[in-house]
Amino acid sequence: MNFDFKILYLVNPTKLDEECYIRAVHADKILDEAKIFSSFNEAIKEIDYIVATSSIDSKSDKKHLRKPIKLDEFNNIINDVDGKIGLLFGREDYGLYNEEIAKSDIMIKIPSSDAYPTLNLSHSVGIILYSIFNKNYFKKNKRIMGKIEKEKLSEYINLLLDDIGYPDHKKEKTKIMIKRILGRSSPSKWEYHTLMGILSKTLEKLRK
User: Fold this and answer.
1) What is the pTM assigned to this prediction?
2) Where does the pLDDT of residue 50 fall: very low under 50, low under 70, confident under 90, or very high at 90 and above?
3) CA-based angle 128:119:107, to the nearest 5?
4) What span, in angstroms and rounded, lies between the C-alpha atoms of 182 and 80?
């Protein structure tokens, strides 16, 4: 509420008891209106752009699952997103699982000391929400492709990988890499239609 965020999704939370409301102070309305989900997949079902957060990142350019972008870069990207953005924060003790991060469009990490890189969950949430609020980056400037377009583009890219006989042992990592590239670049609707046109013509030529 400090940074004008009102929608809270919780997956299998502990009971929202009196202590929760005491800690929330004047933000109890957010707890009252919080949406409770029984599974992670159910919670992200209607999210157009999924943003994972983690203190554990990959040091290799060849490993794309936990390859984060900087907060400033993230703020520039979401300025162009047209749709519902979901910020994923994991468990206090473990964070997000790999399979949860794999379903995100991008991953962000708060710069911190190598000696002690992991932040308290509430601190992480506060820093990231402040960063977004401070830059006022939720203004919509242009039409960016939404969830349906992203899924269609991924489907065509996967078909292309199959048609060219791309090695199976590399396919899953490549799919994640392409998802990350699309997540960072936030293509517009016009760019989406251009890419789909190229992929459609390529698949048509290959199948002839």
Assistant:
1) 0.65
2) very high
3) 50
4) 13
